[in-house]
Structure formats: structure tokens, C-alpha cells
Design a protein that fits this description.
346 residues; Rossmann fold; Dihydrodipicolinate Reductase, domain 2; alpha/beta; 7-stranded mixed β-sheet; homotetramer; 11 helices; 6-stranded parallel β-sheet
Chain lengths: 346, 346, 346, 346
């Protein structure tokens, strides 16, 4: 039953452990190899006690497998993945290394020259709600960043339908696990607890992904996105509050316009099993531990401004869960396979 | 496939929503009825947005079903459950109403006279690690309290083997969800956040359950349990730190004795799929959202005192998950059915 | 020394207890009367154990005093305060009842007709950084809302100097204590912990205060403010992220423009002891328990958008501390008297 | 007025910043020198933004001062402090280096041979509630550990009066700031949040301090203390739950005995301004940011066991505040000088 062999490169971070947690519930694939340089030789189930039931040893080198998830940092990930793609393996990369179509974005935003620019054309940006078809036939999936996942899903319907102007504000609030398992003062408990702060005011690296996808959805205008992420005292979850100016006359006035807007979203996501159009303003907790994204579009009665809020679990729909969703598509499986667990609440 | 019809009485609290979350993953049962007085008429998936995929309406009265979970408060639960048991339904009661064998405990500890004392003999205390056999043949399961589950699992091996004296201290630390969804100043966010406190110093209602089960495990002595629960600023999880005096001469001195102790625990729980003997001091987070209980027994090198620490998720192994584990046994299913999701970490 | 007698109406909420905490450090005033209907007869130091050193009993009616802080809810507060003002007492009202100059705002935003509209002209909006002079000669101070305090201080310099257009987004993130001590599901620990959500998307009651003050600062344009508050899993603190479009040509391009902007803020707040222009993006924790407000203005390098972030402790600068700052001005004392304790970090 | 010059060695940790925060309110001393190797040359108010009002630069070497607080780690602190003591400065050491009277405890518990064992006799254990007299005449104060402060204050009255047997359990729950500002996986936000765990099961270094002081209080018996600390998801606060067996016949039975016990505590602490005998089970939050310790003694009605709970803020009464309290005594000032700010609640 569990017939497809899966490997995880760099299992020792939060994306790695989350992949292993979620794949445990997958009926058709089996993890056969997990790597991690510093932890090589250790039992996976001791390194991460929540994975105690796994009987796997972390190794330095990748073993035999057909599908590979890379949870390496950017720059290193491209180097690891490129040969695997060339060997014909299916690769889902969780780094940014294959997300951006323009090779120049790598020196500009990430400070390195891309080692395999020829793969950028082959790679598919792994947001299944936008690129499902392409994902079914690629061998290289660039799993999106956590912030772009929530932000693009919040804005796609109105951008696609050319309802809003190019000046967009995305104010995102993320749990701390998005910063990973590597230690830093900014993720030290006593610093983050009972605190909120904005960061990356000079421009966050997820910005070019967001702009790229919005521009693809509506090539008639170049979007000017002001994206400010905030660190919030919680482990998981991203809530993005998006603000834009509606073109006049496209929606009815007042509550009627809000209804039309909600209908537009409902239609856009009608066959997307992981996007819920929320009936009430959403909470990150309503997606905790799950692959769901809740989206709530509305219009300010005072200013007529479009406001769209989306919530995801940054480690699931924003990383490991979406990676598995993409794997399912790449393997010809139903998109939801192994991902139907409901959010953990409260 | 999903052939057994299940009902949940009083779905609107945290045990109710957790039952619905977990049963969503169960391959053989289907929820057909959910009740809740104040919320009757509302859609379950709107009342609890994490259950959005359910197409069920909350009703005032229980509909057709074969298995019933009661999540009613004590006293009311006995009144609801008694007729259902008599009708031949399988009932798993999450209240305290059928946990205590001595009818006098109800006026003493809960302030009411038991309305169906004849059922107390029929009911099985639903800790499968101790009473698996009896659970396979009962129609009435008294699902244990959250604190007793963790505490009894921590102490059962040494009590059963008569290794410790009767004077036992159980210092438990619980997440706030254990206090339920009903509002109180003690569970108001600004009061509980960044705070820890002890409560029920006059004697917590879970004490008689603990004492009853320990006395059954070792009838040679009457256990004098000092049990102090603490409210901890987290949503889920109970960590119990148990202290007792080891009878001299039963275990080797020093590290050898700790090894013997660990072996005793490993043997005791060897065919109990949800109890893990932890290699390192356990964290509640290592059980988050799952039905696992981690147990860590050791001996103080300075004082020779036995120290056993256990962790559970109070809403899963401490409530809804254990209830499903019991249902599985009552239905003749493998104990682990639908409960194998790994803990959510971090 | 402690010669001015002070009373607190409705001491039993979070603003009341914070007033008592802060006034304990004030060298020149003494609390002589504290009221609270439901708690009348109880010792203040038992009702709020952090006030254990106070030897005061909560009463139903206000006793003898010269200065009164009202911590009543809106609508009731106006009724309590109006006669006191007429008796010649100095009154600092923490409700919204005297903040808005336009009487029609009360039915529109608060659902009641103002009982003492004649006092609206007399009342001074108690933001000392804008209205210090008027505060020194009033008997009735309308202490601002928590959100308006942070938002207006963030925007005042650029609005005053006519640097930005009228279309403003204020995305605020508040700790839970802002919702008070009254119980609600939305402030129940297990609901709020590990969660973030937006609320009041239909228009928050603090919006008219913000708009009123911005319009006063720059009457050349009518400001269209989109203000979305968010509930954040922390007890204290508000971070407001404000977005606006800079008029072209008013500031230099690039980093030079940011420097000019920072200088503008530094100049604007140069004799305002409680406003700090932050060197780095600010954290709410850097104001915890104190009357300071940190402000960080910058410009997006990608879009040229103005971004200003401010942080306050919602219960101090956003409520009780600012009320005392206003009292100091009303009594002719130095503004900082009794308020110089530094923020509690970490 | 601010006439005594004070220095802080290693101001860059949490004890250092807390000393600076608290001394800001002290009327008679002035910080003239702050050291910190890695941060030398930086402005104190930029390094710690909550200290923005300080105009001090962190230096590598200590400047001119009369009183020195050392916030160095153990072993290094003794080396720094010994010459200062010999120069005649008053030194308050926050490390463990002068707390233990028996030089052999240093190799046994801390792994180093004490470099200045002759000073161990001169040093006074800085718990003013026990050693006030000695503190007024010493030049070297060993400020106690955070856990010992709370635990000893909880137990001192009953130990001193010989009411309990030697077998004592201390189950302590600490906020994360007790682990300091140095990064570790164990204090990484995503690991600690929504988690509780026990640690140092092999014996925590604070144990010998506790035992030393209890043995001094009642030399008739050698106390066997089982002390288990727990890490709790909060920044500040320690709650210690202490369990012991009361000698029979010393207190009346039932509620009368509890009253006698409370009276004993009230009498013991009657002239100790920072210890409050709590009327209700205490909360750490009731001491937040302050130098107070709340103590709640009671007796289990079921088992007759003594239970005493104490709460402190680990960084104030458990470190910096107590250090200043000791400084006051060493300088002949009233014990409470500069330390009377009430706890921050909620």
C-alpha cells in the first residue's frame, strides 16, 4: 500500500519534522530516507519525540527514494535538488530556490547567483489553487513561501478579475515557528512572549514571489505591494490582512457589493478543497495543524476599501502540507490524500 | 465503510468538538447526531469553524445512533445516560458520574445523590491500559478524568508491583482547556496568561478516582494521595510530577535501580500502544493533539525518592481520544483505530 | 505631601486597578475613595491582590475627593461625570463620552443620545502631546481610547505637516486586556491563546476619534481612515502599523528622505517626554507597564509608501497612565510626575 | 541626592537590565558604570530599548563606583568580585559563587575549585528575611538563587519552629527568563510555548543552597529535599509548591490547625515588608515586576500533609530586586527604598 518511497533532505528543522508528522497519515507513500548533517546517526524518533513511532535513522546522505522533499535553506537547496531532478526524481523544494522566474531576483533578493537557472523554467510554483494543471506534469515543484501562500490566496480572485488597483498593502502576522528551529535572539522565548513587532521593513524576501504571482494573475497592471510581516507570540499561524482600492463601478454599493464579492470568492475557490470562504472573520486557530486556508473578503463601510483576511497554519498550508498536496498532484493522486485531518481547536 | 452511527450529547464544549475532530478520521464510524441545547438549530461547522467540513445541524434531542458519547456535566450526564444504557446503546460518559464505585462518593465529592447507583457496578472505568478486557464487554464506559489518566498511568506499575509506600504526592500542571468552554474569571485570558497558580487545595474532585484505582492496583495498602493541580498558561496538556517513597531493597542502588525501574515500566506497558516510556524528561508538547501518554520514571540521586512524570493532551488521552479508544474496544475494533495521528510539534 | 485627594469610579476593571497601581507611586496625590457596585464592601487589596498594601474599602458611592477618574463604561460615565464637573471637581473620564466634539457621533457610533452635550465643548481630548495647553486649564478631560493614542501619535507629524494624502490604513494589534475584565468567549483563554484575529470590520468605535484628531491636525483634507484592529495573544500592548501615500516631492528620495522624515518626528516630539522615536523597529514589550510610546517612521524602498509603527502599553499610555499625565497637567504638576518607571523587560 | 555610585558588571543579561530598570527608581544611588564584554561601546539605551532614558555607554572595564552588582556567571563572578571586595567596595554577587558555606560544594555542584574560599566566611547569604542583621555589616552579599528565594521563604517558619519532618518535596514552576538571555533550544520560543516540562532531575544546582539554609534554620535534623524545577510558558514568575509531613500533635486538627499555621507565618513575617501571607492561593502574576513574595500555607484535609505555596518574580525578588534590597541594608538605608512599586497586573 505504502508503495512510493519518499526522502526528506534536512529533516531536522520544523518543515522536516512536519513533513514526517503529516506523511505518517498518508496511505500511499512511505518515508525511506531522512537526512540531516549534524544529527546523522540519531534515531528520528528520539531527535523528535513526537515522531517516536518512526523506526528511521537520520543519515548524512540521501538513500533510495522516488520523491524528495528538500527542507534545506535557500542557495544550498538548489545545489542539492538540481542533480536529483536531472536523475528523474520528483522533487518538491521548500526553499525559495525555484520560486522566482527571473534569475536576477536571486542576486537581488537572496544574494547569490542561481546555480541552475535552466531549471527555473521547468519548476512550477506550487500553489495548487493557481497551478494545479502544471503541477500534475512537473518533476520540480517550488513550494511557495508561507507568507505568499496566505497573501496570494487572499488576493487572487480580485486581482484575476481586475477589480483592484495596483497599490496593495499586505499586513501579515506570523507565529514564531516560521522563523525555524535555528536559534536567534528574535525567537528567544522571553523576547517574543507578550510582544509583537514588525520586521523586514526594508523589504522581505517573500515580496518578489507575491508580486510575481499577482502580476501573472493580472498582467494588465504592475502591482506595487507594500508587505509588512509581524512576529506574533504564538507558535503557528499566519493571518494576512490585505488592503486595496476597488475600481469604482465594478461591484454594487453597500452590502450588495460585499455579497457580490463573497460570491466571486466562492466561485473562484469552488473546486479548491483546502480553501474555505469564512462566514465570520477568521482566526488562525481555525486552521491549526491543518492544510486549510480560510479567506474572508469584505469592504470597509466607511472608506469603501477592500479588506481581505486569510489564515493558514504556516507549517502546513504554508509549508509541509502544501508540499504534500503538490506531491499528490505530481503523483496523480487525489489532491487531498493524507491531508484531511481537521484543525486542532482550541 | 463508515457504518456505525455515533451521537454526541452536548457537542458544544471542548470535549464535544474534540470528539468530532477526531472521529472525522475514524474509518468505521459516522457521527449522525449532535446535541446542544443552547445551540440547537445551528450548523456544527459554523458553530465550530474547524469542523467546517461537517454537514450536521446541532439538535436539542439525540437522533438515531448506536454509540453515544456524553459530554454533559456531572449529575446531568447520569440522568441522560441511564435510559440510553437501558435501551441497549453503547454509552461512553465523559463526566464523573460512573467513575466511582462507591455511591457515597457522589454526595461527598459532587454534592448529589446518584440517580442510577445500580449502573455503577456495570460501568467500567475507561482506562484501557488497566481495564482493557472489561471494556470489550461493557455497554457503559466511564471515561476517566484528565488528571487521573495521567497520574494513574504514571504510578500504576510501581503501585501494582508494591514498590512504593502509601504516601504519594501528585503535583499536576494543566492547560486551561481542562476548565472547559464555560466562561469564568479564572479562565479569562488576561488573568491566566503569564501566570501559574494552584487550585482546589481543599481537595480536587479527581482525587477519589485516583485513590480508587491505586487501591485496586495494590489492595495491600490504603493510599494517601496529596494531589494538587495547577493552572498553567497553555491551552492543552497535563504534566503530572509524582513523588513517592520506594520500599527499601526492592530495586538496586544508583543507576542500576533506575534501569530496573525503567524496565519495569517498559514491561508493564509493552502491549499498550498509547503509552511511551520516554527516553528523556517529557514535554506536554510531545503529546499535543494526540492520544499518546509519555511516562518518565526515575529516582532522585540525592534523596532516593521515586519521581515519575507523565504527559498527556488533556483533551485527547485525557478525554475525547481515550473515549474513542474505549469505543473501539467496546465495538471489537483495534484499540488504535482512527487515533494514530502523531502529536503536533512544535 | 500626598495632599490631593483622588477618587476612582468603578475601580474593579483593568483601568481602575491600573490607576491604583500607578498612583501608588505618585508623590502628591492620595486615593481616598474607590467605588465599584458589585464589589462594594470588599477590601481593595483583597479584590486585587497586587494592591495588597492599600488599606481602602470599595464603596458604592464616591467619597470626598478633588480629582475623579471615571472608569465607567460609556453612556453611564457621562451620567456619573456631568454632576461632578458641575460641582467643580476635576474629572478625567476614561470612557468615550467626552472625546467626540460632534454630538451626533454618539447616536451614530455608540447608540445613545448624549446626556450632557453642553460639556462636549468644555472637555479637552486628553492627548497631551497635542493638547497640553488646553489641558492645563480644563476641569474635564476626555482620556483618549487606547487605539487612537497609538495611531494618532504615529501619524500626527506627517498629517500636521501635510505630507500624506487622506487615504490612510491603520492596522492595529492589541493585547487582550484592552477588552477589559468582563468575561466573553472572545477573551476566554483557550480561544485567544495561540490565535490572532481581526475584529470590528464593520467599523470600530475608536475610528471617529482618530479621524477627528487627524482632521484637526490637517483641516485641508478630510481623512479616509481604514482602521482594522486585531486581537493578539498577549495581555498588554498595542502595535499600530500605519500606511499612507506621501505627497511627491516633499521629502528627498531614498535614505535621505527617511532621514528627513525621522528628523521631522524628532522635532515634533522633542519636548514630549513620553514619546520616543525608536532607532529600530519597535516592540510592544519595550513599553510594557510604562507610559512611553515608541514611534518608528520609515518609507518602503520598494513602493515609496509611508510606514509608521507605534507601540504603547494599552493600559498605561493607552488608559491609566495617560489619565494621570492629564491629571498632572490639570493640577499644574510636571507632566511626568509619578510616571517615570521604565518599561518592564523582558 | 543620587549620591552613591553604583556599577553593574555584565549588564547585558536579564539580571543586568533588571537592575538598571529598578535602580532608575532609586532615590539615593546612581549607576555610573555598566560593563559587558561583547557589547562594549554600545549605548545602554539602544542595547536595551526599555532603558532608553539612560545616557550610559557599556564599557569593557568597570569604572569608578562604591557599590558593585555582579551579574557574571558563576566561577567568573568570584574572580571578578574577590579583588573588588578586597579593595573595600560593597559587592552584591548574583552568581552562586559566595552562597555556599562549604567550599567542597563548588567542585561537587559547579565543577570548579573556589578561587577565594576565604571569602565564603565573610559573605552573607542575601535573604534579608533571614539574615537582615548580618547584611547590615557585610561588604559581600551572596544574592540567593531564584528558586531558593521562593522555596526557603515558603518553608522557613515551619522549619524554624520544628514543625515538619526532614523529608521535603519542592515542586517549582518557573518562567523562562530564569534561564537567562543566552540562546538555547530549551528557551527557543516554539519549543517552550504551549509546553511544560521538568528538568534537572539529576539534581539542580540550587538544591545545596536550599538545604544549607533549611539546616541552619533547624539544625536538629538533616533535611532531605527533593527539588524538581519545571519550565513554564511564561516570561517571569516562580511558583513553588512545597510538601512536607507535619509532626503530629503540634498543631490543632482541622481548620483550627490551618489557622494556627497561618498565624505562625504571619508572626514570622510580621516585620518583613516584602513577604505577604496570601488570603487566597497565590498567583505568580500577583508579584509581576515587583519585589514581593506571597506565601500561602495550608494543610491537606485528606492527608494532613503540609502544603506551602510561594510566588515571586524570579527577576525581582528572585534576583535584581533582592540584590537592591540587600544593597539598601548594606548602605544603612531603609530596606524598601526604591522597591515599592506594586506588581503589574493583569
Amino acid at each position: 500500500m505504502k508503495s512510493t518511497k519518499v526522502g526528506i533532505i534536512n529533516v531536522t528543522g520544523y518543515v522536516g519534522v512536519e513533513l514526517a508528522r503529516l506523511l505518517h497519515q498518508h496511505p500511499y507513500v512511505e518515508i525511506t530516507s531522512v537526512t540531516g548533517r549534524s544529527a546523522a546517526g540519531q534515531k528520528l524518533g528520539r531527535f523528535f519525540p513526537n515522531l517516536a513511532t518512526y523506526d528511521l535513522t537520520i543519515t548524512a546522505e540521501l538513500g533510495d527514494c522516488e520523491v524528495v522533499f528538500s527542507a534545506m535553506p535557500h542557495k544550498e537547496s538548489a545545489r542539492e535538488c538540481a542533480p536529483l531532478v536531472k536523475q528523474g526524481l520528483r522533487v518538491i523544494d521548500n526553499s525559495a530556490d525555484f520560486r522566482l522566474h527571473n534569475p536576477q531576483d536571486y542576486p537581488d533578493w537572496y544574494g547569490f547567483t542561481h546555480p541552475a537557472p535552466e531549471l527555473l523554467k521547468e519548476a512550477v510554483f506550487g500553489l495548487p489553487e493557481l497551478h494545479r494543471q502544471a503541477l500534475t506534469s512537473t518533476k520540480l515543484c517550488a513550494n511557495p513561501g508561507c507568507y505568499p501562500t496566505g497573501a496570494i490566496l487572499a488576493l487572487a480572485p480580485v486581482v484575476k478579475e481586475n477589480l483592484i488597483g495596483p497599490d496593495i498593502v499586505i499586513d501579515s502576522k506570523s507565529g514564531v515557528s516560521g522563523a525555524g528551529r535555528t536559534l536567534s535572539l528574535g525567537t528567544h522565548y522571553s523576547e517574543v512572549n507578550e510582544d509583537i513587532s514588525a520586521y523586514a521593513l526594508e523589504g522581505h524576501r517573500h515580496l518578489p514571489e507575491i508580486t510575481q504571482e499577482l502580476n501573472l494573475l493580472n498582467p494588465r497592471q504592475k502591482h506595487a505591494v507594500t508587505f509588512i510581516p509581524h512576529l506574533t507570540p504564538m507558535t503557528r499561524g499566519i493571518l494576512s490582512t490585505c488592503y486595496a482600492t476597488l475600481f469604482p463601478g465594478k461591484l454594487a454599493a453597500g452590502k450588495k457589493g460585499v455579497e457580490e464579492l463573497r460570491q466571486l470568492y466562492t466561485d473562484f475557490y469552488k473546486d479548491k478543497p483546502f480553501v474555505w470562504i469564512a462566514a465570520d472573520p477568521p482566526h488562525t486557530k481555525q486552521t491549526y495543524g491543518s492544510n486549510f486556508c480560510t479567506v474572508y473578503p469584505t469592504i470597509s463601510p466607511q472608506t469603501g476599501k477592500l479588506i481581505v483576511i486569510s489564515c493558514i497554519d504556516n507549517l502546513v498550508k504554508g509549508a509541509a502540507g502544501q508540499a504534500i498536496q503538490n506531491m499528490n498532484l505530481m503523483l496523480g493522486l487525489p489532491e487531498v490524500t493524507g491531508l484531511q485531518a481537521l484543525p486542532v481547536y482550541p
